[in-house]
């Protein structure tokens, strides 16, 4: 009970006591007035949230760090009485998503709309909603609220950097053996024909067979005989390192005219965030060059993406990397040793880790003997507040002829991944 209501109730009781004891007309008028205010205010507050509906429309359920999430809100008054004011309180988990506001003077059958644009500063899967509707009487004596069910989710992809080159380049990656594995991608290897089913593209129809059998027949394809690229991301909690960091508030977008380009975003000083960004950038780099790319990592859960190519594969990568956390207990050396045996000859493994234990280097050396090409991307945890010595790891990588990239906090990832660290520059 708020102080206004308590004070008013005390006044009503006192007015009726005085009126009944004195019998004066002025006392009865005051008692009737105060009682009428209480009853009218309660009825007004009770009716203030009735007949009101709220809807939210999200332009896209997917976004990326550095891009905007756009939501349109719509509040409609379907009751007979106009609404003096309505407060919409939003409980979304998307950082810096200020969707709640106060709208005033919503007339009968009237609608008010507004647009909310939030700059995504953090990858992940976030809830949009629920919404609570609040209102009350003009004197602020009674307040009513009504929760509105209905929530949605938006997934924010990790950021990527533009890679102009990466060694070994695509042209230097060796081909593999012919794979008798069906794929939805259109390749130069036709495996056969089958009956048409709903959803097949008309460009896959094999017209000579269709004319001969008098029914629609489509072509099936196999993967091209080229080696796959596998990205192994270390998500072991003991290998991760991070500094304390508070993200700056995003810039407010211009709501009139064209949306301006968000400012360049600084990566958090966290080896996991750097590793995720590098993995997403490399996946994009190879998929845009029509290479089959897969991913393997073990954090809180196993995130495994079967190797494939095409834009759909890139979205699979981004969705998997958007939610990964460095919360695993499996050392990176065990991940490479146990899961790496499934790789085929001439495949390429890109190992992304900040682990100073040379055990994972030995695992890469064993894969090399089986014909699996290896590239090591070492995140220097000493620049992220951790005390580690990478001399032995770097020495064994160089001695084994494994290409090495050493990434430090604050590096330009596009430039750092343009050329590996050579033996002469490592000394």
Description:
This protein has about 425 residues and is α/β, with parallel strands linked by helices. It has 4 domains: about 5-50, no CATH class; about 50-155, Immunoglobulins (Immunoglobulin-like), CATH 2.60.40; about 170-175 and about 225-425, von Willebrand factor, type A domain (Rossmann fold, 3-Layer(aba) Sandwich), CATH 3.40.50.410; about 180-220, no CATH class. The protein is built from 10 helices and 19 strands. It has helices spanning about 5-20, 25-50, 205-215, 270-285, 310-320, 330-340, 360-370, 390-400, 415, 425, and strands at about 50-60, 60-65, 70-75, 85-90, 100-105, 110-120, 125-130, 130-135, 145-150, 150-155, 180-185, 190-195, 215-220, 230-235, 295-300, 300-310, 350-355, 375-380, 405. The strands form 5 sheets. It has a 6-stranded mixed β-sheet with strand order 16-15-14-17-18-19, sandwiched between helices. Helix 1 runs antiparallel to helix 2, helix 4 packs antiparallel against helix 5 (about 310-320) and helix 6 runs parallel beside helix 7. The longest helix has 24 residues, at about 25-50. It starts with a helix and ends with a helix.
């Amino acid at each position: 009970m708020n102080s206004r209501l308590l004070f008013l109730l005390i006044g009503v009781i006192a007015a009726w006591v005085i009126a009944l004891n004195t019998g004066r007309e002025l006392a009865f008028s005051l008692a009737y007035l105060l009682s009428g205010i209480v009853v009218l205010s309660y009825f007004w507050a009770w009716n203030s949230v009735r007949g009101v509906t709220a809807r939210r429309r999200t332009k896209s359920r997917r976004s990326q760090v550095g891009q905007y999430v756009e939501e349109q809100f719509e509040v409609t008054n379907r009751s007979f009485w106009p609404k003096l004011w309505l407060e919409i309180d939003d409980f979304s988990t998307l950082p810096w998503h200020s969707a709640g506001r106060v709208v005033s003077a919503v007339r009968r059958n009237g609608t008010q709309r507004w647009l909310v644009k939030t700059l995504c500063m953090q990858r992940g899967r976030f809830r949009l909603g629920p919404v609570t509707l609040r209102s009350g009487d003009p004197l602020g004596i009674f307040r009513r609220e009504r929760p509105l069910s209905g929530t949605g989710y938006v997934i924010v992809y990790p950021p990527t950097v533009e890679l102009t080159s990466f060694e070994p380049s695509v042209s230097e990656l060796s081909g593999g053996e012919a794979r008798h594995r069906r794929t939805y991608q259109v390749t130069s290897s036709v495996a056969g024909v089958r009956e048409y089913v709903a959803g097949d593209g008309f460009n896959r129809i094999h017209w000579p067979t269709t004319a001969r059998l008098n029914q629609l027949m489509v072509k099936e394809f196999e993967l091209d005989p080229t080696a796959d690229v596998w990205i192994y991301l270390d998500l072991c909690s003991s290998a991760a390192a991070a500094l304390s960091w508070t993200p700056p508030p995003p810039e407010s977008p211009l709501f009139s005219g064209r949306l301006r380009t968000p400012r360049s975003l600084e990566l958090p000083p966290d080896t996991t965030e750097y590793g995720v960004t590098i993995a997403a950038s490399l996946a994009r780099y190879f998929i845009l060059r029509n290479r089959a790319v897969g991913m393997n990592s073990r954090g809180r859960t196993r995130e495994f993406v079967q190797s494939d190519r095409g834009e759909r594969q890139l979205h699979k990568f981004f969705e998997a990397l958007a939610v990964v956390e460095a919360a695993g207990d499996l050392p990176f050396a065990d991940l490479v040793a146990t899961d790496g045996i499934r790789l085929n000859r001439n495949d390429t493994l890109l190992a992304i880790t900040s682990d100073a234990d040379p055990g994972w280097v030995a695992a890469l050396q064993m894969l090399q003997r089986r014909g699996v090409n290896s590239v090591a991307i070492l995140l220097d945890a000493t620049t992220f507040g951790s005390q580690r010595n990478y001399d032995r790891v770097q020495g064994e990588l160089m001695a084994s002829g494994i290409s090495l990239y050493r990434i430090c906090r604050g590096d330009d990832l596009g430039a750092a991944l343009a050329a590996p660290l050579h033996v002469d520059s490592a000394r």
